[in-house]
Write a structure and sequence with these properties.
The protein has 815 residues and is an alpha+beta fold. Among the domains are: 4-312, Distorted Sandwich (Beta-galactosidase, Chain A, domain 5); 739-813, Maltose phosphorylase, domain 3, CATH 2.60.420. Helix content is 27%, strand content 25%. The chain has a 10-stranded antiparallel sheet, with helices on one face. Strands 6, 7, 8, 13, 17 and 18 form a 6-stranded antiparallel sheet that branches. It has a 6-stranded mixed sheet with strand order 20-37-38-42-39-40. Helix 8 (363-373) runs parallel beside helix 19. 56% of the residues are buried. It comes from Actinoplanes regularis. Residues 11-271 form the Glycosyl hydrolase 94 supersandwich domain.
């Protein structure tokens, strides 16, 4: 069942009924100011940091799930009939409804009883504000008197404090209304450096800023008393719950359209004006009034929206493909690339499933996100790498997450997720392959953001590698620490007394548990660092890194191979995990993917056997599950993984992040059919036709799809902010289509389904444009052994970098 359709030409997903299985959301903003918006206008906004600069309030786990947002109410003043322009929250029947989610904007249109409303929501480039452009049309044959009410509920900035510290916060809310602009200035009394504003382009019939006055003491957002009565109260919030609402009266002739613009924004005072005289409560608005006035003009909004579209034209123009598969084309050309940019901006911090309070920017997450967007906007990738590296500790370890506003680690401990440091090497390697910018390796970067601790970025990479080598366990495999990539596999729980309950102690972040996954990751990272060292002329170091990789490969084969697949780990007592010796959790997907990516088992058949085991034991019609058999009960010695019911999340759910590792591994072995089959199983576009099963958005990846052991097999959860986005983009573009940046050039080495006749692509790389044509006979599963580059035969599949500004014709002919 479908709830809408793709408009590929407009680069939009069109939702034609409001009651989607879950709220289907979009993101506004692409720089510093961000917002989430659902297909019924639910969501929230923030500046830079979803916890510390939250503009609007949102209650998680609400009913409906997306209740609270950017609501516009319409009221027919002749009859008293009122409704929501976005269906929510009144849920009155609409004669027509359409939501168009586009690239950093959403447009919601509806009609009821001859009154049509169309609202465009977007964040202009280089601004810290969002625009709501409402167009109200009278489609009746008679004049109409319509009241339009806007509404937002302000958050008191720190989202965690706002949601918990009511005894204080119910007494601190403050607003100021000046010239029809509602200013939210809670905290201004103590900080005097930032505030929010909510403005309207039309003369006001009234306003409200106190939630209880607008809604009524015993009412919700579905039936505000002010809207019902058709008159604002002029309330000014003092404590309790500040909101912003404008009341505009519109007299519409038959066929007439009126445009009303609302602007919600964030402002900081200029540095010299931050501290007013002692006791001053006057809001300094001089610098923001020109901004407000400019964005309330229709021509400014039109120009700003056009600039946003041009911005996305530039971003998505770096890679364009035309393949035999429409789902692949729209994901690569539009939606997967767009999701990669959103995950770059937000990591895992703010969605309807991430509160924006606890996680911040993930060290591991942000490094992986680099893989999917570095080709789109490499200058911001460079900036992000330096930000990430500055949170690293001098040991080579890392805070698992850091807060984007402060760039300080937000864990209670500084390290413990022992895979984190190695991701920095992989992220930097991806940047270097794309840009050739070796100068970044000389950039001085502090440890733990401490002044005076700066070392070249290259030294950060060497400490990342040594962090693993300094923490090897009894089998010579890396210690897992608190966890590796799988945060829920917590193996350092133990008891000193037989028969006593297992305990998690201080030793649980070190301990003796070992990870085969980190071992495979280490081999991959060591090889990448060796390639970087060679470019720097450090050939002795490169040899050391390759020797370390070779030694770890031997350790994996000796202690990590279980006979038909790679083991997952060893627990605190040295018992294997992910082994045929186990009664449950016998095979895990992660080491099968990472070990093959690292080249382990390619020459002796182990890699092929491991991938066959994945196909036999883990693959389902909805994707590859994380492990099998599922854990049927809680096992404290394994930690959180066994706390989930079978088939969900890490307990045998389809953790989509891991699926592209297997896709890539299959291409390394030359299995294009199997790789592409796995790609389509979790492709959101390909799953659109089963939206009643999938439930999440059909245009972006979800973190998890319920596995075969779950009663809701095929249901997706936790959409948008997931490493699945970057890794699937890498899998399809770099390995299946085979257009892969390397340190010394652009490799074009496709591993295609046998029934494809080829494809075409345009790829920007280091300032040059590569126009790529791949041809092969249908039914052939062969790979190319040479290329034609500008008509000249080139042995192998690597194209050396061309001069910036040039266009290179690359032809791949597969016999």
């Amino acid at each position: 069942m479908r709830y809408g359709y793709f408009d590929d030409h407009a680069r939009e997903y069109v939702i034609d009924r409001p009651d989607t299985p879950l709220p289907w959301i979009n993101y506004l903003g692409s720089e510093a100011y961000f917002g989430l918006i659902s297909n019924t206008a639910g969501g929230y906004s923030f500046y830079r940091d979803a916890r510390l600069r939250r503009l609007t309030r949102y209650r998680y786990n609400n009913a409906p799930l997306d209740l609270g947002g950017r609501y516009l109410y319409l009221r027919d003043d002749a009859t008293g009939d009122y409704w929501s322009a976005s269906w929510q929250p009144t849920q009155r029947d609409l004669d027509d409804y359409e939501c168009r989610h586009g690239l950093s904007y959403t447009r919601i249109a509806s009609a009821r009883r001859g009154i049509r409303a169309e609202t465009l929501y977007f964040v202009p480039l280089n601004e810290t504000l969002e625009v709501w452009r409402a167009r109200i049309t009278n489609e009746r044959d008679t004049p109409a008197e319509i009241s339009l009410f806007s509404s937002v509920e302000f958050c008191l900035w720190d989202a965690q404090d706002d949601a918990t510290n009511f005894q204080r916060n119910f007494s601190t809310g403050q607003v100021e209304v000046d010239g029809g602009v509602i200013y939210h200035k809670t905290e201004y009394r103590e900080r005097r450096d930032h505030f929010a504003y909510f403005a309207c382009s039309e003369p006001l019939a009234g306003f409200d800023t106190q939630r209880e006055a607008f809604l009524g003491a015993y009412r919700g957002w579905d039936r505000p008393v002010v809207v019902e009565h058709g008159a604002a109260t002029g309330s000014v919030a003092n404590g309790w719950a500040p909101i912003g609402s404008h009341h505009v009266r519109l007299a519409l002739a038959p066929g007439e359209t009126r445009e009303v613009i609302f602007v919600l924004g964030y402002a900081e005072n200029p540095r010299a004006e931050k501290f007013d005289p002692p006791g001053s409560q006057t809001l300094n608005k001089r610098h923001v009034r020109p901004v407000i006035e400019r964005w309330l003009r229709p021509e400014t909004v039109t120009e700003g929206f056009a600039a946003l579209a041009a911005h996305w034209d530039r971003l998505l123009g770096g890679l364009r493909v035309r393949t035999p598969d429409a789902d692949t084309d729209r994901m690569v050309n539009i939606w997967n690339a767009y999701q990669c940019m959103v995950t770059f901006n937000l990591s895992r911090s703010a969605s309807f499933f991430e509160s924006g309070i606890g996680r911040g920017m993930g060290f591991r997450d942000s490094n992986q996100d680099l893989l999917g967007f570095v080709h789109i906007i490499p200058e911001r990738a460079r900036e992000r790498i330096l930000d990430i590296a500055a949170t690293q500790l001098s040991t080579g370890g890392a805070y698992h997450q850091y807060q984007p506003l402060t760039k300080r680690g937000n864990n209670d401990i500084g390290e413990g997720f022992n895979d984190d440091p190695l991701w920095l090497i992989l992220g930097v390697a991806a940047y270097l392959k794309e840009t050739g910018d070796l100068g970044i390796l000389d950039e001085p970067v502090p440890f733990d953001n401490l002044p005076g601790s700066e070392k070249p970025l290259y030294e950060h990479l060497t400490r990342s590698l040594n962090y693993t080598l300094d923490r090897l366990g009894p089998h010579g495999l890396p210690l897992i620490g608190r966890a590796d990539w799988n945060d829920c596999l917590n193996l350092n729980c133990f008891s000193d007394t037989p028969g006593e309950p297992f305990q998690t102690t201080e030793n649980s972040i070190g301990g003796q548990a070992e990870s085969v996954f980190i071992a495979g990751q280490f081999v991959l990272a060591a090889k990448e660092l060796a390639g970087i060292a060679d470019l720097l002329g450090l050939h002795g170091k490169a040899a050391e890194y390759r020797a370390a990789a070779e030694k770890m490969t031997g350790t994996i084969i000796e202690h990590g191979w279980d006979g038909a697949w790679f083991r997952r780990a060893y627990d605190f007592y040295g018992n294997p995990i992910g082994s045929g010796e186990n009664d449950e959790g016998q095979i895990f997907v992660e080491p099968q993917g990472l070990c093959v990516l690292a080249g382990v088992g390619l020459d002796d058949g182990l890699a092929a056997r491991a991938l066959d085991s994945v196909a036999e034991r883990l693959a389902t019609p909805h994707g590859i599950v994380l492990q099998q058999p599922a854990y049927s009960g809680y096992r404290i010695e394994l930690g959180e993984i066994s706390s989930y019911p079978p088939g969900y999340k890490e307990n045998a759910g389809i953790f989509c992040h891991t699926n592209p590792w297997i896709m890539i591994a299959e291409t390394i072995l030359g299995n294009g059919d199997r790789a592409f089959d796995y790609y389509r199983r979790i492709s959101p576009s390909a799953r659109e036709r089963i939206s009643d099963v999938h439930r999440s958005e059909p245009y972006v990846y979800a973190q998890m799809i319920a596995g075969r052991d779950a009663p809701t097999h095929g249901e997706a959860k936790n959409s948008w902010l997931t490493g699945t986005a970057a890794w699937n983009f890498v899998a399809i573009t770099q390995w299946i289509l085979g257009i892969r940046p390397e340190l010394t050039g652009l490799r074009v080495d496709p591993v295609l389904p046998t029934d494809w006749p080829g494809y075409q692509a345009t790829r920007s790389y280091r300032g040059a444009t590569y126009e790529i044509t791949v041809r092969k006979p249908a039914g052939s599963g062969r790979r190319a052994d040479h290329l034609l580059v500008d008509g000249e035969r080139v042995e192998g599949t690597l194209v050396p970098p061309a001069p910036a500004g040039s266009t290179v014709q690359v032809e791949v002919v597969i016999s």
